[in-house]
Amino acid sequence: MIKFKEVYKTYENGTKAIRGINLDIDDGEFVFLVGPSGSGKSTLIKLITGEICATSGLVEVNGFDMTAIKRRQMPKLRRTLGVVFQDFRLIDKKTIFENVAFAMRVVGAPSKEIKARVEYVLELVGLAGHSDSYPLELSGGEQQRVAIARALVNNPSVIIADEPTGNIDPARSLEIMRLLEQINELGTTVLVVTHEKELVNRFAKRVVVIDSGRLIGDGVSGYYSYEE
Amino acid sequence: MKSNSFLYFIKEGVTSVFNHGFMSVATIAIMMACLIIMGGFTLLSANIQEMISTLESQNQVVAFVDDSLTDEEARSLSDKILTLDNVDTVEFVSREQAMNKFLRKYQDNTLFNDIDPTVFRHRYVITMTDIEGMEALQNDLYRVPGIARVNAHLEISRGFVTVRNIVAAVSLVLTIVLLVISVFIMANTIKLTTFSRREEIAVMKMVGATNSFIRWPFVIEGLFLGIIGSALAYLVTWGVYEILYTRAQNSATFAFVNLVRFSQYAVPMLIAYAAIGILVGVISSSTAIKNYLKI
């Protein structure tokens, strides 16, 4: 569960990125976070993943108080999150299997369990036969699937996808969204940051709209009338 | 640390050396260059110091025996002289031997043809272990009953001591300067090679890797680079020195120079190379990524 209460974030250069946001995302929800460039979407995500700390207010993620979290607790928090980036961020010199397995090695899982789980997750994202390939041998859509598999492999309670379809063609974008929807149906909370209005409107999901660091809309996507 | 994690770190560290081939080669090459320059300089200063000590050992003190002593008494002084501090060798030269040597030196001069051996004194030619103690030895010899006079070139001894001290101090300072420069260059090369991997580290952090989990493969990679770099540098230093040594021994110009054998310095140099290579490799690798871990 993710909770924002009167959260402000001002960067050192004086930019007020987040101005008094209140937001609750319950376990098992599927939420789109939308807004124009520079609206504060990325800052919001960074507050959740612990890359930055709020200037004031309360941020709570999966039971961790992000305003008081200690550095050594950070790995524990991040193991409850699965993060998918726009640019995939796969390690080019590792095989697909290793890219995914590596998230499990981090938590010290035994080799047997890693093998079984990675194969299962790769099958789930539709890449069963690609274990030995390298990221650059795959298409953009496929690479994003690998990133999703990596985010999923440790069975996190929340998956955060930051513009997951930003670098892939529309047909593949829909597939990626459907995959995230499937993952959500299995019980994982999914938070998708995007500015692809059409894509958002194809799914009847909760949409949170922010602009200039303020929350300006929160409802089901059918009512998504936000104009960029 | 779990055993499967440890094996994973070793595998990752070694694989990374090959995966980042160009960077590994650059690091090893820089490491080799620095170690070879340092090692070469150390061998050069060892040779200079060896030459100085050879020249030093050729410096002698001559102690003349009192004329009133019989031949037997004069010869018996040798034991007393040997008990003195800083005495390396003692050679007795009788007045006849001294005269013959003198005559050989001035054989063209008829003035000395009828010279009598009694003009000369029995004497001892003494070499020292440390030329710095020449004056003290001279005083000690004066205290030996039966020694009438002692000839010692104190000004030469002082000259040698000064040269030796200067060479030792310059070598030490240059070695330290070279060491500092080398460590700086090696550490920066490693830092540059890890720069390209900050994204990889960011991904590791994002999936919940602890700092030590990220650092271990880098430490092992640094260890391997250090071992390879220092081993290759050692072999090159050894090989090149042996070639130069053989050439010098066979050359007329350097025939009088007594060079040190590599084997005399083989073990300390191996230890120094390995220690510098490994420490620089490990410490630089693990500290170079420090900034990327602050996510």
Characterise the protein shown here.
The complex is a heterodimer of chains A (228) and B (295). Chain A folds into two domains: 1-80 and 156-222, Rossmann fold (3-Layer(aba) Sandwich), CATH 3.40.50; 90-155, no CATH class. Chain A is 32% helix and 26% strand. Chain A has seven helices and ten strands. Chain A has a six-stranded mixed beta sheet with strand order 6-7-8-3-9-10, sandwiched between helices. In chain A, strands 2-1-4-5 form a four-stranded antiparallel beta sheet, with helices on one face. In chain A, a hairpin with a 2-residue loop joins strand 4 (56-61) and strand 5 (64-65). In chain A, helix 3 (96-106) crosses helix 4, helix 3 packs parallel to helix 5 (140-152) and helix 5 (140-152) packs parallel to helix 6. Chain B has 295 residues and is α+β, with helices and mostly antiparallel strands. Chain B is built from nine helices and four strands; from the N terminus they run H-H-E-H-E-H-E-H-E-H-H-H-H. Chain B is 69% helix and 8% strand. Chain B has helices at residues 3-19, 21-57, 71-82, 95-105, 134-142, 154-195, 198-206, 211-250, 262-288; strands at residues 60-65, 87-93, 123-128, 147-151. The A-B interface holds A 49, 51, 72, 75-79, 81, 83, 89-91, 93, 102-103, 105-108, 110-111, 150, 154 and B 2, 4-5, 8, 19, 199-200, 202-210, 213, 295.
